Amino acid sequence: MEQMDGLDVVGCERCDDLCGSRSRIVNGVGPADADLLFVGEAPGANEDEQGEPFVGRSGDVLDEALREAGLDRGDVRITNCVRCRPPDNRDPRKGELTNCRNYLETEIDRVDPEVVVTLGKVPAEHLLERDVAVTGEAGDVFDVAIAGQPRRVLVSVHPAATLYDPSQGETFEAALTTAAEFTDAQSGQSRLGEF
């Protein structure tokens, strides 16, 4: 049996490999009406253990970049394309992304963010439905239809990319700054004074 309770998936058995490798379903966290919705690819070991997306080293990088952009993790929503940990932290397969797509689309629809920020190649290609040169397109905003609704999608490198290639840090921080400025322009106020 599978179902959603609000924004949370409370039961799903669609993917044998993922059901076999997960210890829990990792749902999104953050406000249900956030201006920014960050989308990663799938939970890793830390996320599967703690039941929250983007914890551990990647989460620390994301948290720091959010602070640098004048944002707080508690003010944004963070989720993944796939809600269960793939075996050996491999990328989610096309069928797994497809199986989980309606959960992601439902979450995006209900949160109704000003901007969806993709963290890495997998979510960028999944939501834009095309090949994406993430480093070259980081910080760019695209207007696309998701579940039939117009959405703004901002491409960003994955926080982990900055751990393996420190030169990506500036690219990552610039993309988050763009996201923050974009939502500030929509609300007519600056969040930088809050810190």
Automatic annotation (TrEMBL):
Residues 27-181 form the Uracil-DNA glycosylase-like domain. Keywords: 4Fe-4S, DNA damage, DNA repair, Hydrolase, Iron, Iron-sulfur, Metal-binding. Its EC number is 3.2.2.27. Gene3D superfamilies: Uracil-DNA glycosylase-like domain. SUPFAM superfamilies: Uracil-DNA glycosylase-like. It comes from the Archaea. One of its GO terms (molecular function) is 4 iron, 4 sulfur cluster binding. It catalyses: Hydrolyzes single-stranded DNA or mismatched double-stranded DNA and polynucleotides, releasing free uracil. CDD domains: UDG-F4_TTUDGA_SPO1dp_like. The keyword Lipid biosynthesis does not apply. GO terms for biological process: DNA repair. Belongs to the uracil-DNA glycosylase (UDG) superfamily. Type 4 (UDGa) family. This is Type-4 uracil-DNA glycosylase.
